[in-house]
Amino acid sequence: MKHALRLFYLPNEGAEGDQVGPRHAFERALAEGNLSAYQAYSYLARAKVLGDHRLALEELLNTAREFAPDVIFVQHINDRYRVDQTYLKQLKAIPSKPKLVVWEGDAYGQFIKTMSATLKAVMAESNLAFLVGLGYLAEAVRKAGAPKIRLAPHSYDSVRFDLPWEPARQRSLDAVMIANLHNIKRIPGLHLPGGRQRKQLANAFHQSLGERFAVYGGGTGWQGKSYARGPIPFHEQGDKIRSAWMSVTWDQFPALPMYSSDRLPISLACGVPHLTNYQSGYERVFGGIPGLYWFHTPKEAVDIALYLLSMPVDRRMELGMAAAEHMRRHFHADKVYGDMLQIIKDELFPERELVRA
Length: 357
Hints:
This is Spore protein YkvP/CgeB glycosyl transferase-like domain-containing protein. The protein is α/β, with parallel strands linked by helices.
């Protein structure tokens, strides 16, 4: 009788343990018998400790060989940790002959911020690639050589977000935006796709709500704006979101179908309605989520905000709680990564009789 999968996880994290959601999801899968063995190797953190990229590549190869995985699950590897197809072929040729699976959580443009050479090499050697958006990005990944492409949207973890709270009836803000706005090549007004609309959206909310609206985020694009309150650590955004009656954003790369940043699941999981720009396919991926509203223009977004503020407080609180419950069922990291594990088994090991360890 054959065993459940052995998973070797390569998280993208500056400090070991930063990838809270997937780490917890894989640890839970191991505890519940959905994996027979699991090991995480924080490749960026180890490279920093070793101080030599060649040694880092050797250590990764040796660690994988010793663990003998069925699957190597790579997360967002790029030119900060250079690998080529020759190295990746070596990694896949260790005695256990693992399948290479990649989850790419970044959005990319067609002309600005395209995939790095390293990421293209990983895609070319992958057996299965999960993306957070499809359309032209799926086409680019397929052109790079990925044989199988699937959608896996962003998730959230309940270690940092969706913590127990007593929703406040009085809040310091009506709406909050958690978003950076960087200038490309330090040229004022030149942003990634969607950046110009993000700023227009913030200006429209400030004009409508005044001091009851705030933006938390970095980037020179916010300089001089009275509503901009500066960057905050990633884990603090939940408190800022809960200080308002709604969160609002205009995601970058708005032409990327079915893409949303992690702001959507985080905001809704915090029990606060979320307003975001519409992207093709949203009704299929995010349709029917209570508390989620999409719009096409800043003016439409402001109208939705005023509509929500026209509700009695109890109704707004109920809407937020319903949103959080939906996120727990469908967009928690345990659910999203658990689904990815099942897809890996279905797609790459259809002949294997997987049993609990």
